[in-house]
């Protein structure tokens, strides 16, 4: 997976297309929601840096979303 991330980071050939798609998606959510997504992603990364674990699965169950 790390290789895929690196390839996207340096894939300048498809940058314009990928950036246009990102902006198209971002517009649907708005600035405040996109900021929340960034914050949440940062929290997930920090939790995984501290201790590799299924943080999303634990959150899913802690919020009792599995019961809906």
Mean model confidence by pLDDT: 87
Low-confidence stretches: none
**What's the total count of β strands?**
0
**Helix and strand composition category:** mainly alpha
Q: How do the helices and strands follow one another from N- to C-terminus?
A: HHHH
Strand content: under 5%
- What sort of overall outline do the alpha carbons produce when their principal axes are compared? extended
DSSP helical segment count: 4
Task: Provide a descriptive summary of the structure in words.
The chain has helices at residues 2-10, 15-29, 31-50, 55-62. The chain has 68 residues and is mainly α. The protein has one domain.
Quick recap:
It is built from 4 helices and no strands. The chain is an all-alpha fold and 68 residues long.
Descriptors:
extended; 4 helices; 68 residues; single chain; mainly alpha
Question: Secondary structure elements and their pairing?
Answer:
Blueprint lengths: L1 H9 L4 H15 L1 H20 L4 H8 L6
